[in-house]
Design goal:
heterotetramer, A: alpha/beta, Glutaconate Coenzyme A-transferase, nine-stranded mixed β-sheet, two-stranded antiparallel sheet, globular, B: alpha/beta, six-stranded mixed β-sheet, three-stranded parallel β-sheet, 11 helices, 22% strand
Chain lengths: 252, 278, 278, 252
């Protein structure tokens, strides 16, 4: 089992049936397709290419949000702007996405490394729809490898806002709902302390210790009163997942 | 200059190629998700600024080395907007208003990049971002079919092309097929650009290739892989060589397509038909 | 309460009929162009306020005597907005923003009727009307086809139904036909309401009759003429009698349609097919 | 020849080929269809029901802007709001409409008679799209019977703004372009003095005197330096017009 497989299976479990999920390509979309194939057959995918309700074909995973593979067997094709406006109107239950850098308040940076936006040390691809998903969905779940260089005290640039400074600043900025509720990683599942909005260890994967999670995180994590251990991916889950990506384009 | 389609879907490649052949300089490119065409324009020295939400060819090929080269060295400015915010900038212009209110980008550092102002809702006092209308001087678009009056129809996902066309001062369109006015009238619900919004129309079959055109041909991922391998090996020089071979050397669009060969084009057509179940 | 379609096109007549049968009171009706259904609601005492741009059956039948009777006597308030302004109120709500900027209504006396505020564009200082979002509690809509998940497709002109559905808290839809999910997926570009925006769906063939449904049946102008002749002769009493006959007496929608008769329905179908060239 | 026939023929001549006209139902639409049938075959009709480029069938004149007859053989069906937004964006050259009451500055009332909006003496049908057409088209041409009760000093309610008070108030209100350029009536053609924006007699129909026009107008009209006489409707014009409305639904 690869790290990406573990991540996809655990992330898929976070999605409930009869909901709507705005999924980014890569592991999030793969996990959403897995959820649909198993416990959430009526999960409606929204893809930022302006695609609603597609059915991802095994072996034909899209590599972009704007291509025929992402639009396969869609139920509606409203266009990009209108797909996001469904989220702004409150129709999208979950935003499901990755991120390059994440801080203790769940804010994400996918824009630049370095402190001067206009003279970046490293220019990353940019937000795409990540800022919109983070701003407009009713709840956001981040799916990411757990690496110390990704989990930083303070992101260089807030591309996608979560709890901002944790002090009610998200609401004060004008964002009426949403925020990151979970961060599903290759080591465990993190949430946020409801008061301080600081990232909190809530579960670890089998064989992973809280200390290991801390060691791979560049800031101090809060710890839940009871840290659960996730159930290991079942054979059925892995089989269904591997059937979706037989070329192992995203599963490593 | 705004370029229609999105990432490697329905990119007006024939028009971008012509623009490169004309050795334009000093352009600003506005496109929501920017792909190989953005790299071409950077390497050719055509663009000074790119207004976009994201730039890369696609996840499997990682961060664009060309993007990094030109932006980190300060030779091209990358003005980043959220995908929706940039979409709303085109929509505001399409609607003929100077801004549209939105919640997106609020609280993030993106709001300062493009100088977006906030305002208070005059009824509730709620804070909103006011994204300014973007009226491109020129829009380049590629569509599935059009009639001689410029009424254009697009199959599948419409991306933002209708808003871009209405927003722009001058609209240049290539089309896979020119159909009769009768055909337009048979399916008026498919028309996304009215003739009065289109300034010039050119027939260009496979006009987005090697990018995709919904239902007609899939993007040529093997070609992207070859292209990025060359960049990994030789950096921007590889793109310059690519432009020499695919843009400057072949005099016509037909000659360009011949470089890919009929077999390759037919294969990508077959794959597209499979995907849309046609 | 917002009612979809426009004037005598795709009015959700079966839903309006049911609403009348339930003897609802104190409603506000929001509909851009208001037709016979508005008169029914007035005479039945169901509405206190109508938010609209225009109310009449159509030019040949002149100013609505029912409108004049109820509004001039102060029994119903008519809140008038321009057609576009009211459309933008639904669109603002559909987009999830509290207002949209527009030029329309500026300088006219309409701007004061609904209390529309003006604002300055934060970039240029230009004056704009800020039309406030309208979030109806309930939307009643009629569509051509829908699947069991509530994905709805409309043929021909879409009017404002998509915006109204997204704007409203609860969305009730009747459909001419219920189709399989496969059928929806075969033509996703025709879907105008996603299932997640629809709360309840009922099969109701001829669900807009005697109003029209694009491509399926034309409005029954002879019926309108008969109806208005009765009003000319007897005023609101004629409408009360009409309601007794068409709304309260027939227990089911099928019984209602029987009052028109199969021959009449078939004729209107034939006329519709001729008009759309099918 | 009926008054409506004269009106439709003269109004049709005002439309140029290769332009876009936002036409109201009734005589304006009939006149636009006539222009299309004769000198302006590439005239694009826009109808407020969200209909672009229809071809009106002889004998099948629509009585509403939202019906199959109005949408027949359209080239595009964008929806109502978007049809108006084309005008707001500046794509519509001419707005072509009627009006119940019109004042010396071209402002139109189709809302209420009486001075209190909420307690009207007569409740009229309302603006429909008239306000939008008057606000947003690049130029507006009014087509109306010439009756003293319609041409009033001051409209009871400004439903559709033309030059407002004639003192630059249209521009000051925020309307960036447009305004009424012509009023085509059953007696002649009126324009507006470019400085005062007051209504001006520019042409009379054959056999109509300036004095007659004045007698049917409830305010003082400016008179152009040279008042032209319109060419009478030709047999060909009338024949083409009558073919469009054989039932004489709008031709009287």
């Amino acid at each position: 089992m690869t790290a990406a497989e573990l991540l996809a299976v655990v992330a898929a479990r976070e999605l409930r049936d009869d909901t709507t999920v705005f999924a980014g390509v890569g592991v999030p979309l793969l996990a959403a397709a897995l959820a649909r194939a198993r416990h959430a057959p009526r999960l409606t995918l929204v893809i930022e290419g302006g695609i609603i309700g597609p059915e991802i074909a095994p072996g034909r995973l899209p590599i972009s949000t704007n291509e025929m593979r992402a639009g396969r067997r869609a139920t509606m094709l409203p266009g990009i702007t209108d797909a996001f406006l469904f989220a702004q109107r409150g129709f999208v239950d979950v935003g499901f996405m990755g991120g390059a850098q994440i801080d203790r308040y769940g804010n994400i940076n996918t824009s630049v490394l370095g402190t001067d936006y206009w003279n970046p040390k490293v220019r990353l691809p940019g937000t795409g729809g990540a800022n919109d998903i983070a701003s407009l969905c009713r709840e956001v779940i981040i799916v990411t490898p757990h690496e110390r260089r990704r989990f930083v005290e303070r992101v260089d640039f807030v591309t996608s806002p979560a709890w901002l400074r944790g002090d009610g600043s998200r609401r004060a900025a004008g964002l009426l709902f949403g925020g990151v509720s979970r961060v599903v990683t290759t080591l465990g599942i993190l949430g946020f302390d409801p008061d301080s909005r600081r990232m909190r260890i809530e579960a670890v994967h089998p064989g992973v210790s809280v200390a290991t999670v801390r060691a791979h995180t560049g800031f101090e994590l809060v710890e839940a009163a009871h840290v659960a251990v996730t159930a290991p991916p079942s054979e059925e889950e892995l089989e269904a997942l591997r059937a979706l990506d037989p070329e192992r384009r995203f599963l490593g | 200059m705004a370029v229609g389609g999105c990432l490697f879907s329905r990119t007006p490649m024939a028009l971008v190629r012509e623009l490169l052949r004309q050795r334009r300089r000093g352009l600003t490119l506005a496109r929501n998700l920017t792909c190989t065409e953005g790299e071409f324009l950077m390497v050719a020295g055509a663009v000074e600024r790119i207004v976009t939400a994201w730039m890369s060819i696609g996840l499997p090929w990682g961060v664009s080395k060309i993007l990094r080269h030109f932006v980190e060295s300060g030779r091209v400015a990358l003005e980043e907007w959220s995908h929706l915010a940039l979409g709303l900038r085109f929509r505001a212009a399409a609607m003929g208003v100077p801004f549209l209110p939105t919640l997106t980008m609020l609280g993030s550092d993106l709001i300062a990049v493009g100088g977006t102002k906030t305002l208070q809702d005059p009824y509730t006092g709620a804070t909103l971002a006011a994204v300014p209308a973007l009226f491109p001087d020129v829009a380049l678009l590629h569509v599935h079919r059009a009639d001689r009056f410029g009424n254009c129809q697009i199959d599948g996902y419409p991306h933002m092309d209708a808003d871009i066309a209405q927003a722009a001062t001058t609209v240049l369109v290539t089309t896979e097929e020119i159909v009769s006015e009768e055909e337009t009238r048979r399916h008026p619900e498919r028309t996304v650009l009215p003739g009065f919004a289109v300034d010039a129309l050119v027939l260009a079959p496979f006009g987005a290739f090697p990018h995709e055109c919904y239902g007609l041909y899939e993007a040529d991922f093997d070609h992207f892989a070859e292209y990025t391998r060359a960049i990994d090996a030789r950096g921007p020089t590889a793109v310059a060589d690519y432009l020499e071979r695919y843009v400057y050397a072949p005099p016509t669009w037909g000659d360009y397509l011949d470089l890919f060969g009929g077999e390759r084009l037919a294969l990508q057509q077959r794959r597209a038909r499979e995907l849309v179940g046609a």
